[in-house]
Structure formats: C-alpha cells, structure tokens
Amino acid sequence: MSVQQVTAVRTGVLDDPEDVREAAGALAAGRAVAHGFGNGYALTFRAERETVERVNRMRGRPAGRAAGLVTVPERIPAAFDWTRLPEGVPWQQVRSLMDELLGLGPIGLRGPAADRVPDALVGTDGGARTVQVVVPGTRCPSHAFLGAALARTGGDFLAVTSAGRAQEPAHWRADGLVDEFGGEPEVGILAHADEEVARRRHPFHRPTAVSVLSFHRTAGHTRSGLPVLVLERHGSLSADHIRAVAANHGFGLAPAPHAVTPLAPRSYGLA
Fold this sequence. Notes:
Elements: E1 12-13, H1 17-28, E2 32-37, E3 40-45, H2 49-59, E4 68-70, H3 91-104, E5 107-112, E6 122-125, E7 128-135, H4 143-153, E8 158-162, H5 174-181, E9 187-191, H6 195-200, E10 212-214, E11 228-233, H7 239-248, E12 252-255
Parallel strand pairs: 1-9, 2-9, 5-10, 11-12
Antiparallel strand pairs: 2-3, 3-8, 4-8, 5-7, 6-7, 10-11
C-alpha cells in the first residue's frame, strides 16, 4: 500500500524531508508521532514523565508504566550501564550481538540502565534498574526522523511504545493507524512511503511488535558453559533466529515462560 492511498487525515511520509521536519517539530512540542519503524509502526514521544503518562493513558496502560527508549544507533550504548552486566557476560560480545541484531531490523534490548536514562524510561527487575531499548534497526529510514527529533529536543533519548492500544497487536499498516489515532489531536502520523518495500527490507521479521532480548540477567549456562540470555518477548524476529545469532557471539538463549508462544500479527480483515 502506498501512503498516497491513506485517506482524510494529514499523513506525512517518512522519506520526505519536509514531513520529517514537521513531525520532529510536533514531537518537540509534546505530540506523539506514529511512524514507520522497521517493517511496522511505533509511537515515539518525549521522555519526560508527564508526556509518558499522557501517552500511557491514551493507550489504556497504567500511567506510571515505564516506556521503552529509542534513539539513533550511535547513541544506543550510552543507554546501558556496562559495569553492571551479570558475572561472566562480556560486554564486547553483547555489543557485537547487538550490532548483528540491529543489522537485521527492529529489536528490543533490555539491560542495566545508565544513570543518564530518564526516570520515566527506567523499570526494575529484582531490584535492578533496567531500560528497554527498542530500535528500528539500521535498515530503516526512520533514523532521519529520530535524529531530527533528538536535535529538536536537545537530548539523547526518546520514549517509544507499540503503535496500538494496550493488549492489542501493534499496527503494521498506516490505514489502521489513521483509523485508530487519526482523531487524536496529540498524535501525528509519519508513514512508510511504501509499506511493502519496508517489509521486504526486513525479510526475517513478521509484522508484530519487536522481540525483546534481555542481558541484565541470565538463565544459567548451556551444557558447553555459555551464558544463557533471556528472550523476554517473542515478537517480530523468531526465537530460532535470535538463538542462532546469539550462538555466533557466545551465548545461549532461553525464552521466558510468557515468550514461548510468538505474538500474533494484527489482522485487518479483507483488504
């Protein structure tokens, strides 16, 4: 579907520099922007607690729930406190694993939160401060928008969440975004120029919310002694694919109990 087929509501295009500038300005002014994100869509907004709470309420989530963190690729390492990795988990191997996953497409990565991460983006697990970085991967043109938004807000990090209401699958079509958020004055839309091209750009990913891999804790060791990382969410990139990539960098993989079954894509009915 080309974005030109999307109706009525003013919809910007992710590849259009003027639309990107307009969307970045809207985000800096406090609006959330639903934008192309890998092979689907995400909602990005300022990382201040007031904005995070407002977007949470709009999506039907608890206001105080931590949002994910999104940024451009070169700033991702600054979101993590690399001194607090579990014993036996080398930071160099985690970084190389991250780089390979980012090269494939959208992914979520949970690790120890750096002190500089805004409080509204920080969660806890067993008393440890964690941050969930959710990024569109290096193949996605959304980095132009994210970079422009960071320049306008003057920070290193933005907040991000799935493009959809709570407990519902994430959107992967702009017409669905328009139907759901087109009446929200606090949401702007920046669509993929061509959604089929965006999906072909990420051939290993299904159109669901991103898979989330955590490295702030481990699930023991493999029989050969490799540390086992935890798959927190079985989303767009399959557990088998992540397991194979993790093995390339010296890690095993174990799904959390709720991540055994992969997320189902949103159904839009008959086209």
